Amino acid sequence: MFPDNLTFSIANWVNGWVDALVANYGDLFRQVSDTLLLAIVQLESLLRATPWWLILLVVAVVSYHATRRVLSTVLITGLLFLVGAMGLWDKLMQTLALMMVATLIAVLIGIPLGVLCARSNRLRTVLLPLLDIMQTMPSFVYLIPVLMLFGLGKVPAIFATVIYAAPPLIRLTDLGIRQVDKEVMEAVNAFGANRWQQLFGVQLPLALPSIMAGINQTTMMALSMVVIASMIGARGLGEEVLVGIQTLNVGKGLEAGLAIVILAVVIDRITQAYGRSRYEGER
Amino acid sequence: MKIQLDSVYKIFGRREAAALELIRQGRDKDQVLAQTGCVVGVNGLSLSIEAGEIFVIMGLSGSGKSTLVRHLNRLIDPTSGSILVDGENILAYDMQQLRHFRRHKISMVFQGFGLLPHKTVLGNVAYGLKIRGESKPVREAHAQQWIEAVGLKGYERKWPHQLSGGMRQRVGLARALAADTEIILMDEAFSALDPLIRAEMQDQLLELQQRLHKTIVFITHDLDEAVRLGNRIAIMRDGQVIQVGSPQRILNEPADDYVDRFVQRYRNRHNPSLNLPGSMIRNKTNI
Questions:
Q1: CA distance B62 to B112
Q2: Shortest Cα distance from A126 to chain B (angstroms)?
Q3: What count of CB pairs under 8 Å joins A to B?
Q4: What CATH number does residue A95 fall under?
Q5: Which pTM value belongs to this model?
Q6: 3-class secondary-structure state, position B109
Q7: ipTM computed for the complex
Q8: Which CATH architecture best describes the domain B3-105+181-286?
Q9: Considering chain B, what is the average pLDDT of its residues?
């Protein structure tokens, strides 16, 4: 046995800290929560109000723009049609709305952090272990305090998703910028480009394939959180999976699971195609 | 005097100050490395470069020549010493002045070309002008003119990866020329090219220089190239200049054994039949 006099617990300290946070800043968090909720709800109702064929058309146009191939476009659109045919269209739109908001927030946080990381080795050494924690910490651990702060529903689901899904984007943005050819950066410097010109004119465009791979990973990881998100009250495909489990309805669970996979495949194909850079594609 | 360097030292490593002290006391590179773990890149070097000349800095790899040339546009800052360009101390420049200096006064051609892979030939050549804020029509018209001057007409819309090595370096050269700077630094600019293309590029550079009268600082490890291009040559070794002079002077009066070894090899290549015992004296006259 481990000697008792050497053990200690941080549980009380953390509990006290979270309680104080809820007591003192609860209102502030509620406000943030309400604003975010409004955005999600509006996006969701927009997606659900849009006729299904229009959404399929938009997806078709976007995937053709990304892949430039008719076969891929037909396959991607066909798969989404299949989800509708399984009677899960409404749920799909709910999940899509949640994902889009989570991905957008992850991008807004992830890309700037990745850029800063590439600039400063010090920030990188601090941030990298933090990202490891974000990815490996079981999500229920931070779901509890998030629930206490934001209440049940979509908003804590989004927070949990962002915490889990942002790290790969930060990593890959950092990597992409660091991998820009040293001599190219030297040349850009030698011509007197300032930091802004270096970042937007050279580093970000050259890191784009890597950044798109990061966005791809982020969306994939966000999708893998869908079921957990449903456990704390987010509607959508994850909810179907949950109901399937709870009622021992294997078939229903599988249908919803397949729909999640299809959504993943669709988003994956499109983001990957955008990641392939045009100028090298013509080789 | 266009560029003047005075006792410039560059030391790489954490214990710069200690290493600088040692090297000033006359220790050599290896001793400094052993005692402080610092590498001496440039060792108390003084040089002056005239306006309008092609000044070649020659040395083997590790001699510090590429490090030295990066001091002239401050891609590398010296540990100690002074660098004057047109009588101005460029080491005193703040970031803004330095950018202005790099945009208007000095440009550079790189060994690995350093082209922007996501821009076309036209975009690459116009880059220096874009950075300093010229409007699109102005910079494209100007870039077009230099693309033609280096013989790349018809390739404006190509991407760098579609070009051969020689053509890529023409883009690099055009980019430096389009910036309209008085000084051009060329760091082993032709070293990555095969011999025929290299000779062509050398001819082209000489031809352009006849019209342009730029101040060109050209780095090479090849004495053939140095002799062909240089108005004056400086020979570097271990971060120091061993000899400076006209190509003639270097070939005729090598300052020490190190320089002499280069000269011998040069002669062997250019007139092997004369390289018999006792033929050295005759040989000197036909360089």
A1: 17
A2: 22
A3: 69
A4: 1.10.3720.10
A5: 0.84
A6: strand
A7: 0.86
A8: 3-Layer(aba) Sandwich (3.40)
A9: 91
